[in-house]
Amino acid sequence: MEHEEILHRCFRCGFCKLPSDYGSFTCPAYLKYRFESFSPGGRMWLTRAWLSGQVQTDARLQEIFFSCATCGSCVEHCIFDKFRESILEAFIAAKAEMVDQGTVPPPVRDYLTRLLDHNNPYKISQKKRGDWAAELGVKPYTADTEVLFYVGDVGSFDHRGMEIARSVAGLLQKLGVSFGILGPAEGSDGNDARALGEFALFEHLAKRNIEAFQQAGVEKIVTLSPHGYNAFKNIYPQWSGHFSVRHYTHLLAEILPADKRLYKAASRSVRRVTFHDPCYLGRHNKEFDTARSILDRLPDIERVEMPRNRADSLCCGGGGGNFFTDLVCSGPDTSAAARVEEAADTGAQVLVTACPICTVMLEDAVKARNLEQRLEVRELSELVAEALG
């Protein structure tokens, strides 16, 4: 197994599941299950025992391996600089071993099968991939278009995700950006398939997208989701997928006016907001300031920080395919539930994020925690659209 050589170097000090102040926990799987076997250190030891034959594959071991949300907090907080960067890749490699053996939890199997059969996890026809934009007059990407707006699976097919896709597309139209979409020619970015260890499927999806991008003459890509941004920026170049890739917040930060007088006040009173860092923008790509700089331009907003923020941010639990497999997303002790409680405790009225998966996860957690009267979840583009009138 790749990265097998680092497994023996972990002695389970436990720092990997803690934030910098050691005051709470940041590992979604550990928060839900509260067994050391679900922590990064426990998973390292179990992987080593499994590879040596001391532990056999069973449903519980599969659950432990695939509950990892690939949030990257363990990499951020491991105290061993010489191998910390390989920890998450070792966990993904262990999943890949299980995938190759055909021993994966049924929800993971079903998710990967849907991706292979339908090019999306919703089992919806590719012909409908551009339907979210039908009422906006968004044009197909052509050689004369400057930017490809890549929407992804959640933005194309999830009800809430489609609302966010329309919000971002409306902003790009209002701001005069020359952009288009591929519609039915767009495919799943594959980021979460790779996080689940299905390397062959990821390569298949990546090469299909790269071919579609190149045939359309795409040079610049703006993504709706941080997951797609991560895949295109960091992994697609392995197959000559070299494009200028930005998340939509990067583009907004460039072209939105800095003068607050140019915006429309969204309410009569100042709203207190707090920002949730999506893992694939934050820890994976070190993008902590762009979204905050946009929030700071909007009128009548007071921004406050949660105790766990930036590199210490608590994952919503939806990464690593868990948004679709639900191995750490349900029950009373989820990271999303802890996150919305943390946001409410700051006194914030609005919890803002810049990821469709995070938005859905956090909105569901607000409802589960009965916090609707105290806290509203908004996607960043929606606040910007309000401020622009």
From TrEMBL:
InterPro entries from the UniProt entry = 4Fe4S_Fe-S-bd (IPR017896), Cys_rich_dom (IPR004017), HdrC_iron-sulfur_subunit (IPR051460), Helical_ferredxn (IPR009051)
This protein's UniProt keywords: 4Fe-4S, Iron, Iron-sulfur, Metal-binding, Oxidoreductase
> What are the residue boundaries of the 4Fe-4S ferredoxin-type domain, all occurrences included?
7-78
Recorded hits in SUPFAM superfamilies, A to Z, give: alpha-helical ferredoxin
What terms describe the molecular function in GO for this protein? 4 iron, 4 sulfur cluster binding; metal ion binding; oxidoreductase activity
Q: Which residues form the Cysteine-rich domain?
A: 163-230, 273-362
Q: What Pfam families does this protein map onto?
A: CCG, Fer4_8
For this record, the Gene Ontology CC terms, alphabetical, are: plasma membrane
Protein name according to UniProt: (Fe-S)-binding protein
